[in-house]
Specification:
By secondary structure, the chain is α/β, with parallel strands linked by helices. It has eight helices and five strands; from the N terminus they run βαβαβαβααβααα.
Length: 226
């Protein structure tokens, strides 16, 4: 079995990839350079791809920064110390990002002969992005049945989101059980020039809370990088 893994270099995509590998999938990792201000994650994605033993790691430039509309591509400051129970969609939301990413993964899946796309989105411990919800993923899967040669020929592409209903703590526990090395990952939206995480953006706070609730030390803390 083959699957295209959308790999950001973060904790969630690494865990999703490890789970898919444990289920027997050969992984084709796809990393997008979209003009993100936290481009350190691309370096982390390379390390994670090696650790996962992917068949191939493809990096594509998709300059969503030219469209703008998000703090993650330089439109405004990355918010810090935001209440995690806030109901508003934060300025770190990137318009149509997951739709674009999944579409590119869908294209490569057809070429690679993959039957699934693996994505590490989460609808519990997350920042409220609309394109992380199960109903969005289900809608994309339905669209892929209509939009692809494989779907028309009766081999519909599956969208696998193994973390979508897990808390961050449970994601971390599952990863540790599979031998995931979280020291390779990068989560921060607004790192310092040397790559050191800010510790205050949504992603940093969610990561810290997840490790705390899991009762596990973040390996980045041991390495002095967080």
């Amino acid at each position: 079995m083959r699957a295209v893994l959308l790999l950001s270099g973060g904790l969630d995509s690494y865990t999703a990839g490890a789970l898919a590998r444990a289920d027997g999938y050969e992984l084709y990792a796809l990393t997008l350079r979209y003009g993100q201000v936290h481009a350190r994650e691309v370096e982390a994605a390379r390390e994670v791809a090696r650790a996962l033993g992917v068949v191939k790691h493809l990096e594509l430039d998709v300059p969503l920064s030219k469209i703008g509309g998000s703090a993650l591509v330089g439109d405004g400051a990355v918010p810090k110390d935001r209440p995690l129970d806030a109901k508003d969609i934060p300025s770190t939301y990137v318009p149509a990002r997951n739709t674009v990413f999944l579409s590119l993964a869908m294209a490569w899946a057809e070429v690679a002969g993959a039957e699934a796309i693996v994505i590490g989105v989460n609808a519990l411990d997350y920042s409220g992005y609309p394109d992380c919800r199960p109903e969005f993923l289900q809608a994309f899967e339905r669209m892929a049945r209509l939009a692809t040669k494989a779907g028309v020929e009766g081999k519909p592409l599956r969208v696998l989101a193994p973390l979508v209903q897990l808390s961050k703590a449970n994601i971390i526990r599952r990863g540790i059980a599979l031998g995931v090395d979280y020291a390779l990952t990068h989560s921060c939206y607004d790192p310092a020039l040397d790559g050191r995480p800010c510790g205050r953006c949504d992603s940093c706070v969610l990561r810290a809370r997840g490790f705390s609730e899991a009762g596990i030390d973040d390996p980045l803390l041991r390495r002095g990088r967080a």
